[in-house]
Amino acid sequence: MPKGFKNFVMRGDIVTVAVGLIIALALSTLIKAFTDFVINPVIARLQGGHGLGLGWQLGRAGNRATYLDIGSFISAVIYFIVFMAVVYFFIVVPYKHVQARRGVVVFEEPGQLKTCPACLSEDLPAAAAKCRHCGTDQPSGTARPA
Q: Reduced to 3 states, what is the DSSP secondary structure of residue 143?
């Protein structure tokens, strides 16, 4: 049993995912600091005055619990966009490049799909002769663009 667990943990894709998660967490912390200490002050400055931030007070004035903070939401959206861009350009693109050099295609666009006339599943490859869901024979020439 321990040998089987070791083999499972040491599989290449598990290690790749673990390294990717560690890098993503580190980048997340860095980008969170950027949005908290660079973007948030800019948004607060755009609001002007000495209010709670960019947003509306829904309850008693000065109560943070009833304040609709649009500035924090804008900051979270910017954080998400920056984080996804960093992950794409610093993890996905290099990974695709390395895998392409090894002859492996990753993150490819899905090909033509067709719909099974018997069970109406829509995720069958165009070249499929049988439905993977219900097992019926498939007619050819019913492909639709992915």
A: strand
Between CA 36 and CA 51 the distance in angstroms is 18
Cβ neighbours for 134, distance < 8 A, ≥ 6 positions apart = 116, 118, 119, 121
Instruction: Tell me how far apart the alpha carbons of residues 25 and 82 are, in angstroms, rounded to a whole number.
Output: 14
Q: What is the pTM of this model?
A: 0.52
The C-alpha atoms of residue 31 and residue 23 are separated, in whole angstroms, by 12
Query: Hey, CA dihedral for 116, 122, 123, 126, is it positive or negative?
Result: positive
In tens, the pLDDT along 31-69 reads 888 877 777 777 777 766 555 566 777 777 777 777 777
Please compute, for residue 119, the number of CA atoms within 13 A of its CA located in the half-sphere on the CB side: 13
Other C-beta atoms within 10 Å of 29: how many? 10
